[in-house]
């Protein structure tokens, strides 16, 4: 420009779409020589790829100072911009204001007008393939080229550096331009680096700059250029459930089976699973939660399934166990994963033909000639909880006794369940009237999952009757 008020322009545009606004400040280092049309530019997610123009105007002053070069600096305003753009280096534009003032005085025939004009500003030219740089953790590559815009008076050494060697590598990292090849683009190859993290798309800043101390004088002030490179992740969150023997089969005799759970990829934080039996009258699981950390993520953890004796001749029963990620306690990369159902079978141990044999044996006992007695559970099962809820069952003798019969009622685990009566007395007059036993859950303060407890009814001379009850955990 000149001091007569002429203007020049340059444009600014982003190389990649931001996640939020990017504000760039525009500052003239010498407003006595040049002013800019705007002090800042704002790029949004909608206009990021539309170039915005800055007009530079020469300023008139009265000094005969010759042509003066000054710089205009463009800088990302960190507090107002997408965080991914904050580390970008400032960029400068060199402008020259041509003097329009004649020298004062004279004497002796012309005293020069401020010396020769300064050399024109020089810069590097960086061109990204396809206007952007994308690689992946599968070690794919992309390229960009570097060239000079003006023939140098000596060699120019250009350095290429990237901020994160865990995401990409650069080759070569140094380029030398001479007076014979300054305008021939030299290629830099960007290669993605594989890691074990589920980290999504990672953005790396690549800086191209002149190594001033060993380069031609006119290029020592050439502005650095920064570009963005995206590294796409190849790690996908997942987990695997493996049943021992390919299936899960337990029995009412207390036989157990198991399955394992393991993560497929390294998480960045803990991943917690809940394990729930959907029919606790048929099967219980232990433990009820599994926690995987970044240090044990690839070590399978075992879940043991135990059959529950319900005292019913109900045949073999199918039930489901559901393994699911606990979203609010887990790495967000795993929270979208689907639940995994595990199909299990509880084999029945109640056989009608065996009961008939037992009845024949009971006939030889001194009382209850047709059997010890009859049991009836409310709702067909007995389930309480550690919150103090209770359930009940009734019991009556199977036949009239010759004298009083005292039935003992005992809980196998008083830390999980207590009974309302320790004995039931039946006489020849009330032997067939059901008497009620209330079972109440006990809070043990432990996160030990749902617990199975046996309540045993026994009397002298008779085979005991065992009632399987469940105390649901509230921890």
The helix content, as a percent range, equals under 10%
**Overall residue-averaged pLDDT value:** 86
Q: How many helices in DSSP terms? A: 1
- For the record, the CATH architecture of the largest domain stands as Sandwich
What is the CATH T-level topology of the largest domain?
Answer: Immunoglobulin-like
Which strand-content bin applies to the residues?
35-45%
Q: What low-confidence regions span 5 or more consecutive residues with pLDDT below 50?
A: 105-112, 361-370
- Supply the helix-strand structural class: mainly beta
Query: What Rg is obtained from the alpha carbons, in whole angstroms?
Result: 42 Å
Distance between the termini: 78 Å
Number of strands: 34
Overall shape: rod-shaped
With strands numbered from the N-terminus, the spatial order across the biggest sheet is 9-16-15-11-13
Total domain count = 4
Outline of this structure?
The chain has 475 residues and is mostly beta strands. 2% of the residues lie in helices and 44% in strands. It has a 5-stranded mixed β-sheet, with no helix packed on it.
Could you please describe the fold and organization of this structure?
- With 475 residues, the chain is mainly β.
- It folds into four domains: 1-121, Immunoglobulin-like, CATH 2.60.40; 122-235, Immunoglobulins (Immunoglobulin-like), CATH 2.60.40.10; 250-347, Immunoglobulin-like, CATH 2.60.40.10; 365-472, Immunoglobulin-like, CATH 2.60.40.
- It is 2% helix and 44% strand.
- The strands form eight sheets. A five-stranded mixed β-sheet has the order 9-16-15-11-13, with no helix packed on it. Strands 18-25-24-20-22 form a five-stranded mixed β-sheet, with no helix packed on it. A five-stranded mixed β-sheet has the order 27-34-33-29-31, with no helix packed on it.
- The chain is rod-shaped.
């Amino acid at each position: 420009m000149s001091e007569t008020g002429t203007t020049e322009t340059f444009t600014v545009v982003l190389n990649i779409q931001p996640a939020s606004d990017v504000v760039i400040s525009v500052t003239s280092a010498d407003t006595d020589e040049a002013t800019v049309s705007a002090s800042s530019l704002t790029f949004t997610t909608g206009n990021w790829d539309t170039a915005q123009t800055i007009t530079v105007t020469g300023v008139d002053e009265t000094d005969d100072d010759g042509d003066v070069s000054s710089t205009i600096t463009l800088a990302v305003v960190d507090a107002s911009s997408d965080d991914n753009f904050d580390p970008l280096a400032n960029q400068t534009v060199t402008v020259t204001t041509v003097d329009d003032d004649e020298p004062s005085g004279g004497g002796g025939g012309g005293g020069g007008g401020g010396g020769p004009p300064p050399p024109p500003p020089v810069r590097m030219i960086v061109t990204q393939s396809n206007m952007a740089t994308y690689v992946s953790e599968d070690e794919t590559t992309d390229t960009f080229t570097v060239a000079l815009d003006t023939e140098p008076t000596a060699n120019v050494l250009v350095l290429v550096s990237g901020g994160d060697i865990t995401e990409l590598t650069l080759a070569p990292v140094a380029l030398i331009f001479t007076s014979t090849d300054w305008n021939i683009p030299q290629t830099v190859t960007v290669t993605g680096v594989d890691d074990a993290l589920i980290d999504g798309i990672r953005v790396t800043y690549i800086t191209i700059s002149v190594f001033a101390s060993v380069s031609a004088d006119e290029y020592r002030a050439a502005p650095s250029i920064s570009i963005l490179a995206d590294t796409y992740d190849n790690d996908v969150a997942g987990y695997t459930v493996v049943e021992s023997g390919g299936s899960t089969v337990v029995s009412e005799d207390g036989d157990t089976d198991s399955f394992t759970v393991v993560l497929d990829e390294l998480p960045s934080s803990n991943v917690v699973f809940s394990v729930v039996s959907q029919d606790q009258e048929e099967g219980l699981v232990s433990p009820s939660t599994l926690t995987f950390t970044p240090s044990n993520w690839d070590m399978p953890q075992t879940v043991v399934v135990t059959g529950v004796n319900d005292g019913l001749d109900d045949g073999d029963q199918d039930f489901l166990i559901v393994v699911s990620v606990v979203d609010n306690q887990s790495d967000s990369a795993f929270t979208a994963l689907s639940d995994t159902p595990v199909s299990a079978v509880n084999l029945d141990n109640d056989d009608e033909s065996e009961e008939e044999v037992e009845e024949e044996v009971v006939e030889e006992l001194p009382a209850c000639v047709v059997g010890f007695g009859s049991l009836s559970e409310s709702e067909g099962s007995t389930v309480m909880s550690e919150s103090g809820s209770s359930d009940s069952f009734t019991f009556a003798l199977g036949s009239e006794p010759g004298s009083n019969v005292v039935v003992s009622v005992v809980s196998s685990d008083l830390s999980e369940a207590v009974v309302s009566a320790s004995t039931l007395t039946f006489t020849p007059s009330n032997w067939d009237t059901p008497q009620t036993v209330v079972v109440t859950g006990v809070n043990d303060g432990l996160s030990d999952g749902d617990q199975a407890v046996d309540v045993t009814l026994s009397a002298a001379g008779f085979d005991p009757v065992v009632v399987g009850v469940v105390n649901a955990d509230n921890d």
